[in-house]
Amino acid sequence: MRRRRRTLSIATALAALAAGIGTALPAGAAPPSPDYVVLGDSYSAGNGAGTYTERTCWRSPDNYAAKVAAQDGANLTNAACSGGVVADITQPRALGSPFVRTATYEVSGTAAVQQRKWLQRAEADALCGTPAQPDWYYEQTVTSSAPTGRQLTATVSCQLTAAPQVESVTPQTDAVFLTVGGNDIGFSTIVLQCMVLRSPSGCRTTMDAANATLPALKDDTAEALAAIREKSRGNAHVYLLGYPHLLNTDSYGIPEAAPTYDAGAALDELQRRGDELQREGVAELDASAKGRGGFTFVDVKPAWGGMAHGLDPRSVPDNTQAWLVPVLAPGRELPEWVHPTVEGYTASASALSAAMR
């Protein structure tokens, strides 16, 4: 059973009660704003929206979660990241390529102690730099060192790392939103083989691999969702959003001149099966919560008008009605291709908002 939207978490309410038993809120005082967190992949980070706070995870202030938070007067933490997979919910993720820095510090002790103290100094001095996002940090690994008395010169490998996404969830979190799973089944390869190269054999192979991955992905996703709810101590309701139709048709043969494989039908079947398995997994989680619920699957496809706003897969397309960024769209970068425009994120926000009531 779906829980209705709350204005503040149980933990927040109890804290407020403990702080002021017998004391009413001052006249006209507003209750605490709800706290929302968005996790997952590019369809939650905001790829395609066109406005970004950074271009590593491609987080946008115009994603669907930001629109719902603004509507509800809620605080929002965006820990979603382009390219995200289910494992990133509970495990750290390396971002970009490592680089090196060298410094000399005066330290004392044995070789092991000197190296430990050197690393502490390097971290305190932000030798690798200051991460642009609060959930990012640099994983520092000493690759070489040369002691000279009390001085130690060392070179460190700096790897920008995103903390496990679930760490952004707290007992004060009221709701968590996410999309996840697309990258686990090879989203970028599907786009490349079926929509860019239009290779019948490549598309078929990619689709077969994706379909084979779906059953295990259902279980992995359920474990990640349970970890999110547990991190909130049972206070946050978890909303897993599905993906919109990528194409505006359920039948498109490739190669276009003499079709040998219906990529449109295969993609439509894959997306529908993915929705079905995600919906089943969420329903099972919700039912196993001993009457407390806490999990909802949100199908965004109806809010997107079904296939009406998917991409036209033809070699000479008409994407005037598309709410996804077309491949090779002028002025757009590769990480934005086949991702929601502002209109698409608005549609997903509408679907989520309806599910929260």
How would you describe this protein?
It is a single chain. The protein has two domains: 272 residues, Rossmann fold; 69 residues. Helix 3 crosses helix 8 and helix 6 runs parallel beside helix 7. It is built from eight helices and eleven strands. It is α/β, with parallel strands linked by helices and 357 residues long.
Q: How many strand units?
A: 11
Q: What string gives the helices and strands in order?
A: HEHHEEEHEEEHHEEEHEH
Count of separate structural domains: 2
Largest sheet: 5 strands, parallel
The Rg value, from CA coordinates, equals 24 Å
CATH second-level architecture of the largest domain:
3-Layer(aba) Sandwich
Question: What's the CATH C level of the largest domain?
Answer: Alpha Beta
The number of helical elements comes to: 8
**Strand-pairing-aware structural class:** alpha/beta
What general outline do the C-alpha atoms trace? globular
The low-pLDDT segments are 1-23
Provide mean pLDDT, rounded. 92
| Beta-strand content | 15-25%
Main-sheet strand order equals: 2-1-7-8-11
- Fraction of residues in helices? 25-40%
State the end-to-end distance: 12 Å
